Amino acid sequence: MKTIFEAKATNTGGRAGHVQSEDGVLDFDISMPNSKGKPDPKSTNPEELFAAAYSTCFAGALEVVAKEHGVDDLGDFNVTATIAFNKEEEGFFLEATLDTYLPTVDKKMGEKIINAAHEICPYSKATRDNITVHLNLLMDE
Questions:
Q1: How far is CA 117 from CA 23, 59, 113, in A?
Q2: Three-state secondary structure call for residue 72
């Protein structure tokens, strides 16, 4: 195994605290949303940070896989990750939905690319068999 890079961030105060990356680029207050939203609209939470990271990582995997399938131009594609914070009798758990828009490919190729990206994306690998991940291909009507 060869480590390509490492990222480091430190949280103080838990879900009502603060998180900062080692280089200071990320520097956010953390607050737990309630039914009315976030107590501090400028704060974030672990689920938002995970959604940002997962959508970005999955988008990178899509680019790699698309080229392997002969698709050199994905156009103005995007991935929206929705991370749900859920509770059941056994406790709390996460669920992810990845909505992917690939405007330059048809449905068959889009599904092939999304499924292949899910196989190689490091975040997908990390979540596999741990949380439910829904993959959606968004199409123009």
A1: 29, 8, 6
A2: coil
